[in-house]
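Deliverable D2.4 — example input (structure tokens):
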């Protein structure tokens, strides 16, 4: 039986696409009869206290798992300060390295996921410590995304991070990407062959694909589910709320992230908004499925043209048509698969017009809903896509 060590800052029971991706990877490799160990941090995203709620620990098989090793971290929640967050990342990386030094096992493969890039460096350390092969999972381009959020402007440090990024690409034995938009950047940055890269997107397992049986009534409901962070256009959501209110359209936000508090404060007087604190993935899917449309936004920066936000996959899994304010790869995917409509401008009035068009065309929405779940089964199915990694590991 081959042994795999997964190194990830986030893991079950944390919310968010990072933890969910690694949870699925762990379970899929176990199903394929690999001996899998996880080195991770204790759950803390978006803050530690929510995981005192037993509802988040809803997978008994994982609760009983002996091969999940967690490090303690001193920070209790994510900081708005980039400097503080970098220190937080460094603390986790150093403690993971110490865990690796103490570990006496041997592994056939190290699977490490980045960003943060410091976790990637832990994986590189592990490659040489265990004298084995390194699979590098890239979920976001870093430090490119750091430049995109425009809150960290230290050219010398960014150049240093860029050198680390290039080193990771070169030294890894295989690179896994969750967005095809990353492929050209990685090849050009490190001068590597396309054959070194495997595309395994975020996805769902078949039992997560909900049949949308909600009876239609006169309520018009749109949802935003996910991170309200530095990359997402939360200002646009703020601008949309009064316009949606005028049209009698209800917005549900299941959100977390550094901009959540500010957004909630700015829209607190509107009656057409429901704010829901973070809940389990199962509950999120249930709530999403009760809505007519799903909203996704990203800021207008080149680096964000390469990403495929996890909430797009979640909306499609639930059979909910997408209203997108995105560009690049995400826009191409939504339009190619005909699972929603993308605005070519962040103009709130244009976006409300798209929302109204979709809400009034029940036939089109039904077609988009059915097509979305078919696309998930075909292209974003963990049970199928894991075979790309297993084929390499053979």
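Example output (designed residues):
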């Amino acid at each position: 039986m081959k042994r795999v060590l997964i190194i990830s800052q986030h893991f079950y029971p944390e919310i968010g696409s990072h933890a969910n991706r690694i949870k699925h990877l762990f379970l899929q490799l176990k199903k394929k009869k690999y001996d899998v160990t996880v080195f991770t941090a204790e759950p803390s995203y978006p803050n530690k206290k929510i995981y005192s709620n037993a509802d988040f620990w809803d997978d008994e098989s994982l609760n009983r798992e002996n091969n999940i090793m967690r490090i303690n971290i001193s920070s209790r929640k994510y900081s708005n300060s980039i400097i503080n967050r970098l220190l937080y990342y460094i603390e986790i990386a150093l403690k993971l390295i110490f865990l690796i030094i103490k570990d006496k096992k041997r592994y056939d493969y190290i699977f490490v996921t980045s960003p943060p890039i410091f976790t990637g460096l832990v994986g590189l350390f592990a490659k040489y410590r265990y004298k084995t092969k390194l699979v590098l999972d890239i979920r976001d381009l870093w430090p490119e995304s750091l430049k995109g959020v425009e809150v960290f402007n230290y050219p010398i440090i960014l150049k240093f991070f860029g050198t680390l990024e290039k080193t990771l690409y070169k030294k890894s034995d295989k690179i896994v990407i969750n967005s095809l938009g990353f492929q050209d950047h990685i090849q050009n940055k490190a001068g590597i062959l396309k054959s070194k890269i495997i595309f395994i997107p975020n996805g769902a397992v078949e039992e997560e694909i909900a049949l949308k049986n909600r009876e239609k009534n006169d309520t018009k409901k749109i949802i935003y589910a996910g991170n309200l962070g530095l990359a997402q256009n939360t200002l646009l959501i703020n601008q949309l709320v009064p316009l949606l209110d005028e049209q009698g359209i209800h917005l549900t936000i299941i959100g977390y992230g550094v901009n959540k508090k500010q957004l909630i404060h700015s829209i607190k007087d509107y009656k057409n908004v429901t704010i829901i604190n973070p809940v389990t993935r199962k509950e999120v899917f249930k709530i999403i499925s009760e809505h007519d449309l799903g909203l996704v936004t990203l800021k207008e920066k080149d680096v964000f043209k390469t990403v495929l936000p996890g909430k797009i996959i979640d909306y499609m899994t639930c059979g909910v048509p997408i209203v997108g304010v995105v560009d690049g790869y995400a826009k191409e995917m939504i339009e190619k698969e005909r699972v929603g409509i993308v605005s070519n401008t962040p103009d709130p009035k244009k976006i409300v017009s798209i929302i109204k068009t979709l809400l009034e065309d029940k036939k089109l929405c039904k077609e988009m809903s059915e097509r979305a779940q078919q696309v998930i089964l075909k292209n974003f199915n963990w049970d199928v896509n894991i075979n790309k990694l297993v084929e390499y590991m053979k």
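The longest strand covers residues 220-227.
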